[in-house]
Amino acid sequence: MKLLVTGGAGFIGSSFVRYVLRTRPDIEVLNLDLLTYAGNLRNLEEVAEDPRYGLIRGDIADRKKVGQVFQEHAIDAVVNFAAETHVDRSIVDSAPFIRTNIEGTRCLLEQARQHKISRFVQISTDEVYGSLGPSGSFREDSPIDPSSPYSASKAAADMLALAYHRTYGVPVLITRCSNNYGPYQFPEKLIPVLITNAMEDRPLPIYGDGLNVREWIFADEHSRAVLMALEKGNPGEVYNIGSGHEKTNLEVVREILRLMGKPESLIQFVKDRPGHDRRYAIDFSKIRRAWNWESQIDFSDGLAATIEWYKTHQEWVNSTAHRSLKN
Questions:
Q1: pTM of this prediction?
Q2: I need a labelling partner for 97 at 20 to 30 A (CA). Which of 67, 128, 152, 275 fits?
Q3: CA geometry: angle 59, 117, 115, nearest 5 deg
Q4: Is the pLDDT of residue 167 over 60?
Q5: Among 285, 286, 247, 154, which residue's Cα sits nearest to residue 256?
Q6: Which residues are within 8 A (CB) of 272 and not within 5 positions of it... i.e. 6 or more apart?
């Protein structure tokens, strides 16, 4: 199979590329990535020389470039990770999110339609569902109710993908996953910020009262589920991917401090961001029944491994943070 992975140099995309090449010797991966601030070729150093891996630098919202990729390569399937994903950046300027997340997805879907690919996996997020109360979980049929420009752009892309399936028969399916963490995560995200600040005994910023709840999944586990979706999912359907590991932000920061032997006095509460959803939780019973899916990595174990990775990859952290400041 010749698999086009978009955004394969980002945090979750690179996890998926590494996972596929490690576990599926029959799959070739072509990575289409614009290599903006969140894309880092160092995330893929371990597979860079693999003959089954190829890289094309390009923008998924560039119709000519996307058309050229499909024209020149015998693409069998697409997994679309490429997206603007940083909520805080979307609040400052939503324009890049509209371009990449909506128009970029449209460009890919149109080429998938014209070239009659066998499968198109649209990587979405649980944030399209909006905010939950203190109980319950998001199901695949829960109403879409995004709160930020980021989640609104992802919800629009989901609707467009499903419309291409219903109108044109493009074999699209959508995955919506809970919050990811693990090695190679961009330094602006919550867990990397907490880890890197704690390593230097700097304040650990927590929005509001710290009681916002997220469900956390190790990135490799997400990759495993996406590969299941590619190989076993039914076109036209949505699949929630979760772990069951719900944590308040305050619980996350305290666990990081505990694992690192640092004092809780480093916690610093800061002004909450606009439209900050209170709680996300995923009902992933559909993939549990269909694919026998279960999370295999305990949150504390995954967090300890992540902390150790950041401790031993300081040069990666510093160079990536420098690239972020330039963008």
A1: 0.93
A2: 67
A3: 70
A4: yes
A5: 247
A6: 207, 208
Read off the amino acid at residue 258.
R
pLDDT for res 224: 97
- What residues are annotated to the active site? 126-127, 150
Q: Which amino acid is at 214?
A: R
Q: The tokens of 246 are what?
A: 């719900």
Q: In the block, which residue shows the tokens 């999944």?
A: 217
Q: Does residue 327 carry a pLDDT above 60?
A: no
| Contact between residue 317 and residue 310 where contact means Cβ atoms under 8 Å apart | yes
Distance, in Å, from the CA atom of 93 to the CA atom of 308, rounded to the nearest integer, reads 34
Token pair of 183 as six digits: 């090695």
DSSP, res 102: I
Count of C-beta atoms within a 10 Å radius of residue 117: 22
Strands (E), the chain: 2-6, 28-33, 53-57, 77-80, 119-125, 172-177, 179-181, 204-207, 213-218, 238-241, 246-248, 267-270
